[in-house]
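Tutorial, part two.
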Amino acid sequence: MSSCVEISEEVMAKITNLEKQGYGNLPICMAKTHLSLSCDVSKKGVPTGFTVPVKDVVLSAGAGFIYPLAGTISTMPGLPTRPAYYGIDVDTETGQITGLF
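Running the prediction step on this input gives:
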């Protein structure tokens, strides 16, 4: 179990801003390493007494939740509204492909 959560003034300001915008009641989904219950991959098993450093807080308004980034973590980019494959075409006469990046 964590003994402390470390939140910078900058992150606290983002949290306050999200609350003011009406997002204060959204569920929270923590983003942290999958390699440990803590945010430190070197702490194996069921560590106790560790600090959870919240590096950022991100709103996912479309999905309806907020996710704090705990420790060093990479997130996946969002997908566009219109998938890119709609712009890909194959000329059946020449076999030429258009619309690829």
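The chain has one helix and five strands. In part three we will examine how such features are distributed along the chain.
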